[in-house]
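Renewal narrative, Specific Aim 1. Our central claim is that a sequence can be written position by position from structural information alone. The example that follows is taken directly from our test logs and has not been curated for this report. It begins with the structure tokens describing the chain, in the order in which they were read.
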């Protein structure tokens, strides 16, 4: 852990503590991708549990998915049902500009396939702050870390090597709230 030199010049006046630099793997030691239950068992795809694919990562909140899986699929295939507020990034098919840098947060408990990596809420990290950080740095991280010739991808070991700069959690939360309000205003103006 080290003090980050990348402290923003513009900050909310009530915050003055140093920013920290850590590898994501020092914070998120349990990064997991999902899987696809066997399509030979039709019962697996007749449930109510959301099953997120990289195509459904919409740079916002995922509250519904094209396919849903059963409790039996989760149990039999050792999938996880991630709690609300879990952050997901696309990790396969990154050679496609439409997939590269895609991310979202789940609005309801969800599982995921092998094309997404899940980040649980952590005590020192605001998930919305992580979301905005990845929105800014996801594509440059792709160019630095993606591997593969035919299909470029990340895996949990590569993602653990990402340099992550962050402030105290109260400052992260305020930054995320500010950026969310800006996004909301942009969405209102677009309508």
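The sequence written for that structure reads:
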């Amino acid at each position: 852990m080290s003090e980050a030199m990348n402290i923003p010049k513009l900050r909310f006046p009530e915050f003055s503590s140093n920013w920290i630099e850590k590898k994501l793997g020092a914070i998120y030691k349990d990064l997991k991708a999902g899987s696809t239950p066997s399509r030979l068992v039709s019962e697996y795809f007749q449930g109510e549990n959301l099953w997120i694919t990289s195509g459904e990562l919409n740079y916002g909140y995922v509250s519904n998915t094209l396919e849903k899986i059963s409790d039996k699929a989760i149990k039999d295939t050792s999938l996880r049902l991630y709690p609300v507020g879990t952050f997901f990034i696309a990790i396969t098919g990154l050679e496609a500009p439409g997939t590269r840098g895609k991310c979202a947060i789940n609005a309801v408990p969800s599982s995921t396939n092998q094309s997404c990596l899940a980040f649980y809420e952590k005590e020192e990290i605001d998930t919305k702050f992580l979301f905005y950080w990845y929105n800014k740095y996801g594509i440059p991280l792709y160019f630095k870390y993606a591997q593969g010739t035919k299909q470029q991808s990340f895996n949990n070991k590569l993602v653990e090597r990402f340099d992550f700069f962050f402030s105290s959690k109260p400052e992260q939360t305020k930054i995320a709230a500010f950026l969310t309000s800006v996004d909301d205003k942009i969405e209102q103006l677009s309508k």
